[in-house]
Amino acid sequence: MSLLIKNGRIITATDDYQGDVLIQGETVTAIGKGLDAGADRIIDAQGLLVMPGGVDPHVHLDMPFMGTFSSDTHETGTRAALFGGTTTVIDFVLQKQGHSLREALTEWQGRATGTAVGDYSFHMAVTDYNDATQKEIRQMVEEEGISSFKTFMAYKGALMIDDRQMTALMQEVRRHGGLVTVHATNGDMIDYLIAKHRAEGKLSPLYHYLSQPEVTEAEASGRFADISNYTGCPGYIVHMTCEGALNAVRNATRRNQKIFVETCIQYLLLDANLYERDFEGAKWVMSPPLRQKKDRETLWAGINQGLINVVATDHCPFMWKQKLMGETDFSRIPNGHPAIENRMELLYNEGVHKGRISLNKYVEVACTNPAKIFGMFPRKGTIAPGSDADILIFDPNERHTLSAATHHMNVDYSAYEGWELTGKVHTVLLRGKVAIEKDECLVGKGYGQFIRRGKVGNFI
Ligand code: URP
Ligand code: ZN
Ligand code: ZN
Prior knowledge:
The protein is an alpha/beta fold. The chain folds into two domains: about 1-50 and about 380-440, Urease, subunit C, domain 1, CATH 2.30.40.10; about 55-375, Metal-dependent hydrolases (TIM Barrel, Alpha-Beta Barrel), CATH 3.20.20.140. About 30% of the residues lie in helices and about 25% in strands. It has helices spanning about 75-85, 100-110, 130-145, 165-175, 185-200, 205-210, 215-230, 245-255, 265-270, 295-305, 320-325, 345-355, 360-375, and strands at about 1-10, 15-25, 25-30, 40-45, 50, 55-60, 65, 70, 85-95, 120-125, 150, 180-185, 235-240, 260-265, 310, 390-400, 420-430, 435, 440. Strands 1, 2, 3, 4, 5, 16, 17, 18 and 19 form a nine-stranded mixed beta sheet that branches. Strand 17 and strand 18 form a beta hairpin. It is globular. The mean pLDDT is about 95. One zinc ion (ZN) binds near residues 58, 60 and 314.
């Protein structure tokens, strides 16, 4: 099967030109002007943008967390991602404390294999680093194609590791050419503030926010940068929200260090004032919490300064009845919000359409950098001969409204209900197949492939 996309405006992280893209089987085979290769099918992309499929390196699908499971499975979550123009996601495998990495991987493979609709890979979250875990790091990188390891500096008793474990893990991961990613907030400070607020009877969602002040994130980000610098292991801070944390990274650059930074779409767009809406604020209870206007401005500037490399989602949806688990105690509200389907359109509207970032920067932070940092480039994250034909054909002028009534995520509310956007996903290709067309998904359960990743070294 061959397919020709004609007359589109092709955008990569570095280029912007009119042209045609020829696809044979699963791969892009030629790019040019006036290509006429007798393809089996021609898609006319006149007036449309032709971009790489989105790569979202931070999603939690079917994840056991806070006494429940995130509500999107690998099927519903990757399908919703495709509807939103994201063709590859990286999900998190969570080691159970007292158990091996292998056991966790087997459990996640059981949920994802044959289920995913879109392509996916795994980060391995190390929550219990000991002599046995140490031996598994090489196996994960070399045998399983999992070259990134997630750590938590918070969620003590379930996920958090201490600085001793972090240092030892980073030394080991470095030895095998991997990368360590981190949820960088000071877990002990947060636990103290949560306990204090609960003891004072301060139990509404607002106190989730007030239990995680900016300093908890700035301190942990600086500490992580220091350990990364000392061990020489590449480090990546996930879901950065605020000025203080970005300044910790800025400081690290003064000693010639590179720390990769991800923010998420919600931190660019939403404010902590949403926590003042009584229990409705639970829709946006996530960790770290939403911040303030000055932080949003810092994050947009950080993208343009090249300090923030990736815009992800931290998609971790819960049904409203799951959120109600914390109706009388904010600390029991499952943390996370739904966005896997909305990221590409929201970032286009708020970033490109409103003039905050260029089209090239859009592709860089949403597609190319995540593929490069996590060892999937140039297979994923760009349009070039030899790359997977993962392509987002996007209408930059179509207007539409986000709503739970029309989204495809398995969650009964939208964090962006009623938002009116300019720019909409038109057609999505995944490995040469038309996956989304006319608001319909044309690939089925099990089409999504696990993407083995190489040693992480193809840095931006
Ligand atoms: O609130 C969040 N972020 N939920 C998912 C788990 C995590 O910390 O990333
Ligand atoms: Zn986190
Ligand atoms: Zn997360």
